[in-house]
């Protein structure tokens, strides 16, 4: 496919959801009214996200897989010269998989909501917000200008706030406030770092900054800027101890919100580390890497212990909350991989990003389905369930999600965490090897803990004494199959054929580490 | 050599037209029968538009008039890029205010002739101010802008709140003027001139024995402007004055009144006191930090169901926003290119004027001064609610309010550029606090309407004012360069 077409496709991927969001607010034209206004607008959501997903597939097909390190579909238009902001869009091997994952997850969410209407105020607003959210998420991965990245980063806040505050569960108001204030605090601090880099480095263009590789930035500027940027990204990721917004937000959010929060929003943080911090300020990245790794592995252990505590009998643990804490642990692996500053570790981090998006997305869908059927996410109540007996397919899928999440070899969860630890075994030159060996050992212990709590969950929810008279729960419905099958298939595929993804990211990662050359 | 200064009438057309239109309306009021008094409002809008159009020939041109006959490069009036941008803000804000007032004047029985005369006089003063290049002109312009404003605030006869508001506003403003005049006289004593250019030279080589006098003069002049811009600790008049004033006048004070204070501050700091940048730079920086923090903290504490909560919140938020506007001026104290730094203040002030007037327009249009009454506005008036939501997210500086976001980015950029890291961090934290109350209000609009909510009918002209502000804000969000270009060039 020629370059102009690719540029248009990429621009359309960002713009179509925005237009769709405006269109969702307008009354449906005749012929598209459907059975009810509600149904019509939910269908509109499916159509728009479907179109975007197809466009992302087209983009992936047109992507030159022989040169994943070069920025493709590169558009660069002047927008606000006064602030040095150019509409610079483009994708490479790092951003393409995340872009496709985002489009896929949003599409699946739209399908799921079409059949399973979100409980709350009007469906119109729901669809409009979902589409704005999608546009912001996609833009984050598609833009190549620091201030545009900030704009995209902020664009997800208001839609997600309303999704949680209006369609959420218990304690939603508080959780929504915590989410937006916490992440905004992080991102305005991040903005200060961007401004420092842009003003001292003379440009806000990520490609140009990566090519300079920090040569225009003094060491102290790099250190201050990366501290500020890293704080913002660490809140989003989230990195222990800045994670406290996450369990509340995930627990209170509606199913669709949790899926997108865990599946995409968290990745915006780690993507930022890879895309911005490493190439733009390599000196500072070296300085901070051991600390990042340390916080990452503390997060692994902390997340796992929190999950173990929630999974105990009688702890009144919430299953959604448990999965949220497990995300803290999984993102810890991603941070460890990034902190090694080696191609192996970075590839692992990017792989774990995608895998976590697929698997945790699936898990949140499953918990949402459980909540629809039983009316609760309380583990102690679910524990009386014996799900295998009542709804065997649902139980089977939950067990599948759990073992994928704990990193069973052969499924997608395995490779990312393995590569991240492997990277820590031999970190980049100049980083303390003993320290990273210790981090690796701790992370390895973390995988054990992860396995422990997930197996406890499977045992308590899925298995149990068989009692004949328990009423059966409805098993997996057709639309649920439709929404979940792609995630299951991709999880297996990622486990069996990791080269498909690593082949894309590796050249791009090598280039980022080498300073954009 | 002639002793009479030559006058460039084209350069001074804008304030003159505004003043003449005001006088004409006052006279016309005598001859119009009561049922046709509403024509006065449209006359005022026409006059303001004519004044704004008279700026067109000046675009891209630098004109100066009222120059000294012996030294022709020392002038009292300059129509340069800076002047034009501020005058654009003043007239734009005034036209929107007039649109808001047309309805208010008719409904609440304000004396029409007096109202329009006072408004246009104040506008004339505000339009004169950015062009002033000596202290006499500056202070006359400042008072021409302020004195009618006192009367406008107190114009609601028989209203205790209105009278109290006017008195508070009057007393604090007069104190400010007195302090400023004292400061100016000290500066005059130390430098021997009222013209900014000459003062700048004079202060750079003051007699060491007069240095204390000059420093005190500079400080006192700044204190005067701190009153006008409602900077902490001289901000207490703002909430009461806004609540007591008719809503359009509160809107006018927040957009145009504020711009006047900032323009004056920029002129004296950059043109007259550049030699004392190590005095005013830190002072303005501290004032900025205190002002935004105090404004935000007070705004967060406003309860949605308290009387006048919407106006009160906008008042406190305007104090907070004043703090943001001060940041580039403080940065100019450290910058190598100070007139570029203050461009960000202008860009931000333009953005703020548009969205804040828009927010006031919706408050006026819905006829309720409580935030709680706007609950469920979306269900009754979807477009108005969306417009207000858009104004509020712009004030908060979050997407989709792109222009609000990049306005803040420009302001923060000047602080980072000047090495004022601590101020940038304080402002960043304040932006987060600000989001809380703006978003809380926004969320109210989209809630289920209260059961006993009466459907309000919206006056058409107020709807039009809202629409104008919304369209401008949307256009600016699509093409922020339209105003952000002022942040990138030296206008002064």
TrEMBL record, chain A:
Its main location: membrane. GO terms for biological process: ATP synthesis coupled electron transport; electron transport coupled proton transport. It holds the Pfam family Proton_antipo_M. Its EC number is 1.6.5.-. GO terms for cellular component: endomembrane system; membrane. One of its GO terms (molecular function) is NADH dehydrogenase (ubiquinone) activity. Residues 145-426 form the NADH:quinone oxidoreductase/Mrp antiporter transmembrane domain. InterPro entries: NADH_Q_OxRdtase_chainM/4 (IPR010227), NADH_UbQ_OxRdtase (IPR003918), ND/Mrp_TM (IPR001750). It is found in: Endomembrane system; Membrane. The chain crosses the membrane at residues 6-28, 40-63, 96-115, 122-141, 147-167, 179-199, 219-237, 249-268, 288-310, 322-342, 348-370, 391-415, 435-458, 479-504. It is a multi-pass membrane protein. Keywords: Membrane, Oxidoreductase, Transmembrane, Transmembrane helix. Belongs to the complex I subunit 4 family. PANTHER family: NADH-UBIQUINONE OXIDOREDUCTASE CHAIN 4. This is NAD(P)H-quinone oxidoreductase chain 4 1. The lineage of its organism: Bacteria, Bacillati, Actinomycetota, Actinomycetes, Kitasatosporales. The gene is ndhD1.
Automatic annotation (TrEMBL), chain B:
Keywords: Cell membrane, Membrane, NAD, Oxidoreductase, Quinone, Translocase, Transmembrane, Transmembrane helix, Transport. Its main location: membrane. Residues 132-430 form the NADH:quinone oxidoreductase/Mrp antiporter transmembrane domain. GO terms for biological process: ATP synthesis coupled electron transport. HAMAP family: NDH1_NuoN_1 (MF_00445). It comes from the Bacteria. It is an enzyme of class 7 (translocase). The keyword Hydrolase does not apply. It holds the Pfam family Proton_antipo_M. GO terms for molecular function: NADH dehydrogenase (quinone) (non-electrogenic) activity; NADH dehydrogenase (ubiquinone) activity; quinone binding. This is NADH-quinone oxidoreductase subunit N. InterPro entries: NADH-Q_OxRdtase_suN/2, ND/Mrp_TM. It comes from Streptomyces smaragdinus. It is a multi-pass membrane protein. It is found in: Cell membrane; Endomembrane system; Membrane. It catalyses: a quinone + NADH + 5 H(+)(in) = a quinol + NAD(+) + 4 H(+)(out). The chain crosses the membrane at residues 12-32, 39-59, 79-100, 112-129, 135-155, 167-190, 210-237, 249-273, 279-301, 313-334, 346-365, 377-398, 418-439, 460-483. NDH-1 is composed of 14 different subunits. Subunits NuoA, H, J, K, L, M, N constitute the membrane sector of the complex. Its EC number is 7.1.1.-.
């Amino acid at each position: 496919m020629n370059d102009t077409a690719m540029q248009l496709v990429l621009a359309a991927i960002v713009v179509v959801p925005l237009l769709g969001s405006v269109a969702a607010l307008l009354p449906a034209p005749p012929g598209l009214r459907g059975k009810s206004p509600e149904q019509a607008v939910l269908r509109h959501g499916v159509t728009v996200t479907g179109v975007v997903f197809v466009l992302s597939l087209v983009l992936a097909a047109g992507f030159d897989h022989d040169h994943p390190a070069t920025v493709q579909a590169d558009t660069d238009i002047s927008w606000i010269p006064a602030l040095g902001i150019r509409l610079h869009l483009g994708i490479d091997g790092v951003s393409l998989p995340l872009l496709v994952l985002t489009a896929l997850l949003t599409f699946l969410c739209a399908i799921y909501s079409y059949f399973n209407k979100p409980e709350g105020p009007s469906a119109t607003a729901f669809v409009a917000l979902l589409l704005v959210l999608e546009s912001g998420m996609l833009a984050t991965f598609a833009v190549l200008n620091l201030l545009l990245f900030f704009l995209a980063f902020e664009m997800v806040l208001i839609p997600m706030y309303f999704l949680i505050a209006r369609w959420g569960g218990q304690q939603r108001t508080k959780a929504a406030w915590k989410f937006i204030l916490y992440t905004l605090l992080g991102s305005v601090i991040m903005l200060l770092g961007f401004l420092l880099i842009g003003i001292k480095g003379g440009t806000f263009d990520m490609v140009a900054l990566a090519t300079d590789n920090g040569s225009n930035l003094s060491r102290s500027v790099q250190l201050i800027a990366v501290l500020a940027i890293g704080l913002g990204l660490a809140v989003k990721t989230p990195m222990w101890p800045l994670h406290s917004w996450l369990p509340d937000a995930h627990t209170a959010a509606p199913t669709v919100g949790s899926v997108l929060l865990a599946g995409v929003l968290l990745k915006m943080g780690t993507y930022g580390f890879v895309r911005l911090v490493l190439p733009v300020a390599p000196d500072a990245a070296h300085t901070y890497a051991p600390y990042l790794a340390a916080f990452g592995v503390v997060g692994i252990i902390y997340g796992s212990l929190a999950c173990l505590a929630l999974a105990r009998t009688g702890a009144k643990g919430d299953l959604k909350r448990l999965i949220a804490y497990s995300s803290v642990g999984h993102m810890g692996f991603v941070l460890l991989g990034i902190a090694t500053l080696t191609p192996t570790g970075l590839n692992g981090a990017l792989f774990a990003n995608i895998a976590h998006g697929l698997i945790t997305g699936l898990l949140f869908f499953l918990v949402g389905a459980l909540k629809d059927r039983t009316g609760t996410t309380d583990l102690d109540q679910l524990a009386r369930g014996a799900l295998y007996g009542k709804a065997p397919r649902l139980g089977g899928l939950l067990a599948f999600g759990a073992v994928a999440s704990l990193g069973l070899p052969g499924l997608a969860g395995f490779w990312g965490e393995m590569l991240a630890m492997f990277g820590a075994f031999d970190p980049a030159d100049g980083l303390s090897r003993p320290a990273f060996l210790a981090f690796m050992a701790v992370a390895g212990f973390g995988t054990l803990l992860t396995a422990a709590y997930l197996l406890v969950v499977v045992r308590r929810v899925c298995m149990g004494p068989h009692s004949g008279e328990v009423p059966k729960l409805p098993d997996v419905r057709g639309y649920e199959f439709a929404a979940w099958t792609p995630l299951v298939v991709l999880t297996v595929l990622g486990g069996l054929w990791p080269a498909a993804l690593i082949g894309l990211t590796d050249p791009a990662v090598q280039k980022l580490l080498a300073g954009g050359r | 050599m002639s002793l009479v200064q030559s006058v460039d009438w084209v350069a001074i057309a804008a304030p003159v037209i505004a003043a003449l239109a005001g006088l004409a309306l006052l006279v016309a009021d005598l001859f119009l029968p009561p049922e046709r008094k509403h024509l006065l409002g449209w006359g005022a809008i026409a006059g303001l538009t004519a004044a704004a159009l008279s700026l067109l020939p000046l675009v891209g041109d630098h004109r100066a008039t009222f120059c000294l006959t012996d030294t022709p490069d020392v002038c009292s009036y300059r129509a340069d890029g800076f002047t034009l941008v501020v005058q654009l803000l003043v007239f734009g804000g005034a036209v929107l205010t007039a649109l808001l007032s047309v309805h208010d004047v008719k409904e609440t029985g304000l004396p029409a002739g007096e109202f329009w005369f006072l408004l246009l006089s104040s506008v004339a003063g505000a339009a004169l101010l950015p062009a002033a290049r000596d202290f006499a002109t500056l202070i006359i312009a400042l008072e021409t802008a302020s004195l009618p404003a006192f009367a406008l605030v107190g114009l609601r006869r028989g209203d205790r709140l209105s009278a109290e508001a006017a008195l508070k506003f009057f007393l604090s403003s007069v104190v400010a003027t007195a302090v400023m005049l004292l400061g100016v006289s000290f500066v005059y004593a130390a430098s021997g001139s009222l013209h900014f250019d000459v003062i700048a030279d004079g202060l750079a080589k003051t007699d060491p024995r007069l240095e204390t006098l000059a420093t005190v003069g500079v400080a006192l002049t700044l204190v005067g402007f701190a009153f006008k811009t409602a900077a902490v600790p001289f901000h207490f008049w703002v909430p009461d004055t806004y609540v007591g004033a008719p809503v359009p006048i509160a809107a006018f004070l927040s957009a145009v009144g504020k711009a006047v204070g900032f323009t004056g501050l920029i002129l004296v700091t950059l043109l007259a006191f550049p030699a004392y940048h190590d005095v005013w730079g830190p002072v303005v920086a501290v004032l900025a930090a205190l002002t935004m923090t105090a404004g935000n903290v007070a705004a967060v504490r406003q309860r949605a169901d308290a009387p006048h909560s919407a106006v009160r919140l906008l008042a406190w938020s305007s104090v907070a926003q004043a703090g943001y506007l001060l940041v580039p001026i403080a940065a100019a104290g450290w910058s190598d290119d100070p007139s570029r730094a203050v461009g960000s203040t202008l860009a931000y002030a333009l953005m703020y004027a548009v969205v804040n007037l828009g927010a006031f327009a919706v408050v006026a249009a819905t006829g309720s001064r409580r935030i709680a009454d706007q609950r469920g506005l979306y269900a009754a008036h979807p477009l108005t609610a969306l417009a207000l939501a858009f104004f509020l997210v712009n004030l908060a500086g979050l997407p989709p309010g792109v222009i609000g976001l990049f306005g803040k980015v420009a302001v923060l950029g000047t602080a980072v550029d000047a090495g004022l890291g601590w101020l940038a961090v304080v402002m960043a934290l304040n932006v987060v606090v600000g989001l809380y109350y703006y978003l809380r209000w926004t969320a109210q609009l989209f809630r289920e309407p209260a059961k006993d909510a009466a459907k309000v009918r919206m006056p058409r002209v107020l709807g039009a004012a809202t629409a104008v502000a919304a369209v401008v804000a949307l256009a600016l969000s699509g093409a922020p360069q339209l105003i952000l270009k002022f942040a990138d060039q030296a206008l002064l």
